[in-house]
Amino acid sequence: MEYAESDDGIRAVEEYNASLARKVLFISGMLAALTAVVCVSGSTGGREIDVFSIPGIIWDHITGAVYEFGTDEWWDDYVLCSVRLPRIAIACIAGATLAICGAAVQSLMNNPLASPYTLGISSGAGFGATLAIIMGFSVGSSIGLYGVTFNAFLFGMMPVAAVLMISRTVRLTPVTLILVGVAISQFFGSLSTLVYISAEEESIQAAYLWEIGSVVNVTWDDFPFMAAMLLFGSAALYTVSWKFNVLTLGEDSAKTMGVDADRFRLLTMCLLALMTMSVVSFVGIIGFVGLLAPHIVRSVIGSDNRYVLPASLIGGALLLLCADSIARLWTKDLLPVGTVISLIGAPVFLYLIIRRNSQCKGSW
């Protein structure tokens, strides 16, 4: 009996070590792939740059290297660090933010179809941007070019405020939260339609391009706020990753372990809304990243959020950067990144759902 128990214990330790090694290897592999895609994306375009020199150029730029105007070194530094790198960095930040928010909200609601836009955030932000672009109405019009951004952020937070008000009178279960989000989305979508009716063709096109998402016109000025929100939000989410694991076991289990599911869910949704809006208000509404990246991660390393959250962060950055590289290099920006990610994400996501249902008989 003692030998059997000893063998079981050794086997359990070996299985845990193998599982841990697989998770670490997967995360390390995605990080290496992200680094490679950054270098390839930075090296290709109108001016070709040696892919192996990309890290050195970036390091020299950070350390303050100065080149004579018009030399090859000056042009390489300018094209990479002032033209391509802002777009690459914003794509990585946006993808990482949407993916980690997607992983969190899916665990929070124990629903694989939940996304960062579950509360109607995208519809609220779209309505705010539509008002600014089509009708010229912007709460932040006094801050110039950021009027559309400020409007999108402000109106995108309105659904969250509505949910908080409703939560005072109704117990918001995961299903109720999704239904409230659907209702709010329909409401703001209808308001946007009313604005479109009285708009001119050029304004409609500008608003539509914003709603499907693009990182074409981003600059380094957009980076600090988005990066700060990602760092703060991801650190906060990882700190409470054990609570996400508890919630996936059910609310009764969460209660026995001292987790107030309703309060935790509302507070976390507010944080996820802020993180999502830090992306949406700058690059528009980019779908499927928050759905697809966490699904791929969970299919490989399981559902432990201590690993799912950081892996989703890296996977989201990799996914959106690949999509943007396709949009920039293969379609010459004729297709916005939001369209490219949908073309890639829809069939892949459908395949993952079918495969998961066939393996798990429809269970989460």
What can you tell me about this protein's structure?
By secondary structure, the protein is mainly α. It has one domain: ABC transporter involved in vitamin B12 uptake, BtuC, CATH 1.10.3470.10. It contains 14 helices and no strands. Helix 3 packs antiparallel against helix 11. It is globular and about 70 Å long. The two termini are 37 Å apart.
Key descriptive features of the protein:
364 residues; ABC transporter involved in vitamin B12 uptake, BtuC; 14 helices; 0% strand
End-to-end separation: 37 Å
Number of strands: 0
Question: What is the H-and-E element order?
Answer: HHHHHHHHHHHHHH
The appropriate CATH architecture is Orthogonal Bundle
**In the residues, how many domains can be counted?**
1
Content-based structural category: mainly alpha
**Poorly predicted ranges:** 140-144
Helical percent range? Answer: over 70%
- The overall average pLDDT, rounded, is 83
The top level CATH class name = Mainly Alpha
Number of helical regions? 14
Binned strand content = under 5%
CATH superfamily: ABC transporter involved in vitamin B12 uptake, BtuC
Largest sheet: none
CATH-defined fold name: ABC transporter involved in vitamin B12 uptake, BtuC
What is the alpha-carbon Rg in Å? Answer: 22 Å
Shape: globular
